[in-house]
Amino acid sequence: MQADPRAPELTAQDFVTMAHATRMCVLLHDAATKDILWANPAACEMLEWSVAELRPLKANDMSSSAQQYDRVIGRAWLQEAVDKGASRIEWHYRAKSGRVIPTDAVAVRVELERGPAVLVQFRDIEREQEVERQLRLTTSWVDALAHHTSTVALMLDAAGTIRFATNTALPLIGATPGEPLGPLTDHARLRLRGRVSTWDEVLSRADPVTSVQLEVDRPDQERVWLEGSLERLQESDGLLMILHDVSERIHGQVRREREMHRENYLARYTAMGDMAMAIAHELGQPLAAAANFLAGSRAAAPADSRVGYGIDNAVRQIERAATIVSSVRAFVGHLEHVQQVADLNDILEECLYFVGLRAGPAGVEVRVDRSPEPVLVRCERVLTGQVVLNLCFNAIDEMAVCDPQRRQLTVTTRIDGDAGVLTVDDLGRGLRHDPFERTFTDKEHGSGIGLALSYRIITRQHGAIWGESRDEGGSRFGFSLPLAS
């Protein structure tokens, strides 16, 4: 681009005026001797020397006494500018008062009428260095807050995406360090006042702060509960979530509720025991009377008639009912030492007729896998049979709502070490929780006492009972009893 011929040319005095007016400090050195030839007013003001005072000074007179600012190094820096045309360095000058001034200095070779010279331009960077030091300090504080604090902190955007998380937050929400965190709701369920909520609802309540709770499911571990606040930051569009791990407190509350649930059940169980004793006592005489009446009727009925057949079966059922009543009275009383020995195969065989009556209308196929050898256990025969019925009936009821192709019940007996084991496998929906941790049923018309009584019957006979989900689907309930040997 050519200069406008109509513009007035700058004079030498104009350049002198500009050099005096600039706030950039300037020193002019002779290229050969490195002596100071001239200094502008800004340099004189910073160094507190006049031009006349500066001219005889050497590097050691006006530089820091530190080794890296030795005169030899200073001359080499200026010579590099002479040889290469320019050179840059951080140089610490020393003012007349003794103050050391850190500067960013650039040396440039210039050709004057009198010969080559070195023009040094420098500026005070002490304030910049202090700001940089404060920034490094602040950065270290932020780093300590982010990576070494026990506080759980998350930074989120308005869409609910996690932009930053402290190191303590990552394992709690199940995130992997170094990978994108994604939306908060991918890691946890949001809760407000004890109920499940959405991010949009929580965000609308952050005006500017709202309380929040996170519920985090972790595989094969207890659920994590985090509680704290969500605050909308005034200077940006981000949000800060500060949380604390309250899992122990929540789990404690659950345990206390469970204990109260058990206490309520025990009260109900005690009341049922009293009722069972009263019912068993009152049923004994009517059952005996009914048996006597049937015996009298049987004597008058022909031996091969249908009436005789019906009376004989009715008598057997009354005898079974009397046995159950007697067993209940014994169980509710003191059944601590079991002396009776029974074969689990025989107990199962006695129950299969009733299992079939329940399974048929529900379309459930019953399969039996008996132990090839007797499974002789020490137990109360009738009550143990009631446990088998309870487990089978529960499985049938579970599969009644499932796909007809999956309605299959398998009952197995076997010997395992010093115990006899009976298991009931179904292909239902599986278990959502430990069935023996809760004492009341989820069934609409259940009494809530079947599994609890089964547990009580088996454990009082020194056995164990359990329920678990199967890998191939469905659930398995079973119990073990000590072998008679």
TrEMBL record:
<dbReference type="Pfam" id="PF13426">
    <property type="entry name" value="PAS_9"/>
</dbReference>
<protein>
    <recommendedName>
        <fullName>histidine kinase</fullName>
        <ecNumber>2.7.13.3</ecNumber>
    </recommendedName>
</protein>
<keyword id="KW-0902">Two-component regulatory system</keyword>
<dbReference type="GO" id="GO:0005524">
    <property type="term" value="F:ATP binding"/>
</dbReference>
<keyword id="KW-0067">ATP-binding</keyword>
<dbReference type="InterPro" id="IPR000014">
    <property type="entry name" value="PAS"/>
</dbReference>
<dbReference type="InterPro" id="IPR036890">
    <property type="entry name" value="HATPase_C_sf"/>
</dbReference>
<keyword id="KW-0418">Kinase</keyword>
<keyword id="KW-0547">Nucleotide-binding</keyword>
<dbReference type="InterPro" id="IPR003661">
    <property type="entry name" value="HisK_dim/P_dom"/>
</dbReference>
<dbReference type="Pfam" id="PF02518">
    <property type="entry name" value="HATPase_c"/>
</dbReference>
<dbReference type="InterPro" id="IPR035965">
    <property type="entry name" value="PAS-like_dom_sf"/>
</dbReference>
<dbReference type="GO" id="GO:0005886">
    <property type="term" value="C:plasma membrane"/>
</dbReference>
<feature type="domain" description="Histidine kinase">
    <location>
        <begin position="278"/>
        <end position="485"/>
    </location>
</feature>
<dbReference type="GO" id="GO:0000155">
    <property type="term" value="F:phosphorelay sensor kinase activity"/>
</dbReference>
<dbReference type="InterPro" id="IPR005467">
    <property type="entry name" value="His_kinase_dom"/>
</dbReference>
<keyword id="KW-0808">Transferase</keyword>
<dbReference type="InterPro" id="IPR003594">
    <property type="entry name" value="HATPase_dom"/>
</dbReference>
<dbReference type="InterPro" id="IPR004358">
    <property type="entry name" value="Sig_transdc_His_kin-like_C"/>
</dbReference>
<dbReference type="InterPro" id="IPR036097">
    <property type="entry name" value="HisK_dim/P_sf"/>
</dbReference>
<keyword id="KW-0597">Phosphoprotein</keyword>
